[in-house]
Amino acid sequence: MAKSGRRASRLVLVGFLGCSCLFAATAAWAGQELDFHVAFQPDELGASTNLSLSAKLVSSTGGPLSPVTKFVLYAPAGMRIDARGAGTCTAAVLKQIGPRGCPIDSRAGFGGGVGALSLPDETIQAPYTLDFFFAPREGGRLRLLIYVSARAPATLELVLVAKEVPAPKPFGLGFSVEVPPIVTFPGAPDASVESAFVTVGSPDVAYYERVHGRRTLVHLRGLIVPQHCPTGGFPTEGKAYFADGTTLTVNPTIPCPSR
Amino acid sequence: MSVPLALRTAVALTVGVTLSASVVCAELARAATAQTSETVTPSLAPDRLHAKGSLTLAIRYAGGESGLPSPVRKSLLKLPAGLGLDVPVLRSCSPASLRSRGASGCPSQAKIGSGHALVEALAGSQLITEHIALWIFVGPLRDFQPTFEVLGEGRTPLQKRVVFSGTVTPGRAPYGEELQLDIPAISTLPLEPDASIVALTLTVGVARHPPGREVNTVVVPANCPAGGFPFAAESTYADGSTGSSSATAVCPP
To answer: Residue B24: what pLDDT?
Structure first.
């Protein structure tokens, strides 16, 4: 477990951190605490894997959590996304039809969590789901679409974009997601998030496709664990930007896979 | 970057107008449908007393939270007294062979049946459906009791192989033997819920005896009790609840 950070608040979204066994990082500031858990499954060097991430935010002051406006994630050098053979979806399709409108081979992951709607006398918890899809590259860089959906007590459908961004050393892969303000009703704070979980990758995913006229079972490699693990483990970084202008940074180190 | 006005309005209206009512209604509806239920449908072929053939049990699971039945963990299938299994050449198969090599890892004489399962799981906002092919084999004796092994294989959207065991024990009247299946959790993706079986069909034996071949068959009882052959299923679910159902196969004409 690692500790770092400045200011904690809600987190929605994407994670490309990694590790064999479950690992966690906690950051706390101004009476709020963010708990991160990340895991690789399976946890083999160079293997196609699932990456799962969960984040939970707790406010010790009882006040509403400041909404996240952007989230940036840096994954270890050597980790890569092999999207060969994957389809793509568009934000327009997601907005008009929803996830069912996207090709099955464009799926990149799933997730969900609990949002918070702050009313004058109480905070209402609102479960939401996340669906990840490959989008057409932009300027040669990978993009993922994130379909956010909540049904009760409030209805919400939202499409976010995770854009691949340059990553400073010692990282190798970066993603940035901008989160719009989610208005609830006049006078009330924007919605925030208490928890989020994400799983991306495709080690077991398979689907049928016509290859040279024959129906063939196709596998995607998806997310690939680095071939080598540096001494001390895989370095990662997550940085959240908040509506009140503060940021939170966590630097969990992912343990190397056991031999 | 901002949320479209229509969306803001929709969120605000939903929260403001329907919050309290929808929460109450949702809780009431959830309570009404939270319990997982099951139904069992048996069929014998050929439907003739003392015939060698097959028995098919079709079980459907319904209800449960989020509209999905709770995953079944144990299923006790009660069979009518006098129902037998004819195995001309006794061969068995180990669960280790099935896990590593699939159905090809076992001698064909050990196969006593096949089937199909439909499983569903929630992932993200989607209901994921997968068809699972099943094979049933004679397993190794356990405490001098016969056992069987069930191999399940699904290909898409997740390529999965599951092996689980069953035991055969004497039952109480009006039933004969009981088959207990211990069904493992069917994992989907990390952090996502396990899959639920919504339909399970198991066929033991073969309805048509191929000429010149020794095959494993079910033997229909020589006598049919008044009211028909009794069948029952009792299940234990992952949420700790239990359920049962019973059915009767009408006596052969």
So the answer is: 37
Amino acid at A199: T
Q: Closest Cα of chain B to A171: distance in Å?
A: 24
Per-residue pLDDT tens digits for B27-67: 444 444 579 999 999 999 999 999 999 999 999 999 987 78
Taking CB atoms and an 8 Å limit, are B11 and A152 in contact across chains?
Answer: no
CA distance B113 to B152: 12
A23-29 vs A2-3, strand pairing mode: parallel
* Closest by CA position to A158, among listed A175, A138, A179, A137: A179
Burial class (CB in 10 A: 0-12, 13-18, 19+), A214: exposed
List the single residue in B3, B23, B189 with the smallest CB-CB distance to A110.
B189
Which of A67, A70, A72 minimizes the C-alpha distance to A193? A67
pLDDT digits (tens, 9 = 90+) for B159-198: 999 999 999 999 999 999 999 999 999 999 888 899 999 9
- Count Cβ–Cβ pairs < 8 Å, chain A vs chain B: 106
Q: Are strands A253-254 and A234-235 parallel, antiparallel or unpaired?
A: antiparallel
What is the DSSP annotation of B138-158?
A: EEEEETTEEEEEEEEEE-SSB
Distance CA A149, CA B3 (A): 14
Which residues partner with A20 through β-bridges? none
Closest to A112 (Cα-Cα) out of A12, A249, A216: A12
* pLDDT (0 to 100) of residue A119: 80
CB contact under 8 A, B125 and A178: no
Do the Cβ atoms of A219 and B10 come within 8 Å? Answer: no
> What is the C-alpha to C-alpha distance for residues B63 and B60, in angstroms, rounded to an integer?
10
Query: A207: nearest CA in chain B?
Result: B156
Q: Which of B11, B13, B19, B161 to mutate: most A Cβ within 10 Å?
A: B11
Q: Is A21 on the interface with B (CB under 8 A)?
A: no
The rounded distance, in Å, linking the Cα atoms of A23 and A21 is: 6
> Which pair of tokens denotes residue A255?
């343990």
A81 contact partners, CB below 8 Å, separation of at least 6: A142, A173, A222, A223, A224
Do the chains contact at B12 and A99, CB–CB below 8 Å?
no
A42-46, A129-133, B7-11, B143-147 — which is least confidently predicted?
A: B7-11
Structure tokens at A69: 């406006």
Q: Inter-chain contact A204–B159, Cβ cutoff 8 Å? A: yes
What count of other Cβ atoms lies within 10 Å of the Cβ of residue A141?
Answer: 12
Identify all chain A residues contacting B191, using CB atoms and an 8 Å cutoff: 52, 54, 111, 197-199
Q: What was the pLDDT predicted at A23?
A: 53
Contacts of B217 (CB under 8 A, 6+ apart): B52, B53, B54, B85, B86, B205, B206, B209
Is A217 in contact with B1 (Cβ distance < 8 A)?
Answer: no
Q: What are phi and psi of A81, to 5 degrees?
A: -115, 115
User: CA-based Rg of chain A, rounded to a whole angstrom?
Assistant: 18
